[in-house]
Amino acid sequence: MLIIYQPINGGNRFDEKKQEFIGYVEKVDFPNKGYVKVDEETVIIKNVIPGQHVRGITTKRRNGKFLGRLLETVESAPDAVVAPCLCLVSVEVAYISRCHMKNSLH
Terminus of the chain with fewer CB atoms < 10 Å: N or C? Predict the structure, then answer.
């Protein structure tokens, strides 16, 4: 599957704040920071899990990296399961996948 990381607002450079993008969450670091590559730039977004295709918007630029905000989950992660109850979070990760994610943080 070919994954294209691209800014949505046009232009061929990704160097502005408040620019929308679509990308693939490559990894997640503690505390809940997901890393998305867009045009050789890194955007950090909270509240995502590895494997998701997300649409977001950049908010700040710090130390060569952008901070962003999640607008929409375009495609769910392959390890995602629906929570059994509405009072819980709407997307959960299978237990085995959570163990692998926790071990990769060390």
Answer: N
18, 57 contact by CB (below 8 A): yes
Residue 62, CB half-sphere, CA atoms under 13 Å: how many?
6
Q: Where do the domains of the chain lie?
A: 6-77
pLDDT single digits (tens) 11-35: 545 666 788 899 999 998 888 899 9
Going from the C-alpha of 82 to that of each of 28, 59, 92, 99, the distances in angstroms are 20, 30, 6, 18
Query: Which string of DSSP letters, residue by residue, matches the chain?
Result: -----EESSSSS----SS-EEEEEEEEEETTTEEEEEETTEEEEEES--TT-EEEEEEEEEETTEEEEEEEEEEE--TTEEE-SSTTS-SEEE-HHHHHHHHHHT-
Report phi then psi at 104, rounded to 5: -75, -15
Question: And the tokens for 52?
Answer: 């998701």
